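Data deposition worksheet. Section B asks for the primary sequence of the deposited chain exactly as it was used as input, without tags or linkers unless they were present during the calculation. Section C holds the resulting structure in token form. Section D is free text for depositor observations; keep each observation to a single sentence. Incomplete worksheets are returned to the depositor.
Section A, Depositor: J.P.
Section B:
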Amino acid sequence: MPYYVNILQSELDGTYYVGSTSDLGVRAARHNQGGSRYTKAKKPWKLIHSEELENKSEALIRERQIKRRKSREYIEALVRVRLPS
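Section C:
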């Protein structure tokens, strides 16, 4: 079953949220409905990046890799590389 690493950006203040899920649409909707304590105060959120991985374990590893960088510049570079020209 595929899993996804996703990066959401707050339309309120531009901050990023990195997470993983098996269903991008449902998870993004949950964040915009206030279903997460961290994202509740910064909604609305838009999905700006996602990566499909083979399973939950791989998605969690990739999520941790991104979060360890703790860098806005790294996230913005990652998003720029994936955007179509």
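Section D:
The longest helix spans residues 56-69.
Strands lie at 3-10, 16-21, 45-53.
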